[in-house]
């Protein structure tokens, strides 16, 4: 005789957890929960949703993983302010990303650095300008014709991100640094381009000190021109 359970399909519990996770997020939104507010206990949520505490616990674990809730002593789970880049950072492993993704991450860097000119010009201080000049002074005299020097880029452009005053933007830049380095060393940006003069780091400092946001945008685009040339194959 066939086993009584041979024809019975297993229940897709993962889809149930997915639905509970979504319902919990909807609950937090509709009930206007704020950062620091305690959410209902597991047993209360399970009873309200008509599911087991195991399912609720799994859904809550997912919310903890994305930084939406955290456990507090004597209070249980409370709403927290999620780190927008935490999960992305854990998955940003250049060695396991394909060339198309690496190229797109590198392109994202170019877009960010051209687009942040207004924030730099609005928030830069005299001390920032002096620090930028100090960084640029340590570069070779031919730095305006060289294709790429990773440490110079990290030092100078990292300072530009800092000047924006945007913490999320700065974290994003730091997270992408290994991608930029790997994008060059991996050979996906190997197209030869004509060596020519372009706006150097020293030239960008001059613009920041005496120019405008529009001039900085144009200067940064020119500064990054040979990177664009390698991408536009």
From TrEMBL:
Xref: Gene3D superfamilies: GntR ligand-binding domain-like, Winged helix-like DNA-binding domain superfamily/Winged helix DNA-binding domain
Domain HTH gntR-type intervals: 14-82
SMART domains, per the entry: FCD, HTH_GNTR
Keyword Metal-binding: no
Gene Ontology MF, one: DNA binding
Matching CDD domains: WHTH_GntR
Record flagged with keyword ATP-binding: no
Highest taxon in the source lineage: Bacteria
Record's keyword terms, sorted: DNA-binding, Transcription, Transcription regulation
Cited InterPro entries: GntR_C, TF_FadR/GntR_C, Tscrpt_reg_HTH_GntR, WH-like_DNA-bd_sf, WH_DNA-bd_sf
Protein name: FadR family transcriptional regulator
Annotated organism of origin: Rufibacter glacialis
Lineage of origin: Bacteria, Pseudomonadati, Bacteroidota, Cytophagia, Cytophagales
């Amino acid at each position: 005789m066939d086993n009584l359970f041979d024809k019975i399909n297993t229940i897709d519990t993962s889809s149930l957890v997915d639905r509970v996770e979504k319902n919990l997020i909807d609950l937090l939104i509709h009930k206007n929960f704020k950062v620091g507010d305690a959410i209902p206990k597991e047993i209360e949520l399970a009873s309200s949703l008509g599911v087991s505490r195991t399912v609720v616990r799994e859904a809550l674990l997912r919310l903890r993983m994305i930084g939406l809730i955290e456990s507090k002593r004597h209070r249980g789970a409370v709403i927290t302010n999620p780190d927008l880049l935490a999960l992305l950072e854990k998955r940003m492993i250049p060695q396991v990303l394909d060339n198309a993704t690496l190229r797109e991450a590198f392109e994202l860097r170019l877009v960010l650095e051209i687009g942040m000119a207004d924030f730099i010009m609005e928030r830069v201080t005299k001390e920032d300008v002096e620090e930028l000049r100090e960084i640029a002074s340590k570069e070779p005299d031919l730095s305006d014709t060289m294709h790429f020097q990773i440490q110079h880029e990290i030092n100078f452009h990292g300072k530009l991100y800092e000047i924006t005053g945007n913490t999320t933007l700065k974290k994003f830049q730091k997270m992408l640094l290994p991608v930029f380095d790997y994008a060059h060393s991996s050979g996906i940006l190997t197209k030869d381009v004509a060596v020519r003069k372009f706006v150097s780091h020293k030239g960008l400092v001059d613009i920041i000190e005496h120019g405008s946001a529009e001039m900085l945008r144009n200067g940064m685009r020119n500064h990054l021109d040979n990177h664009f040339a390698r991408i536009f194959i």
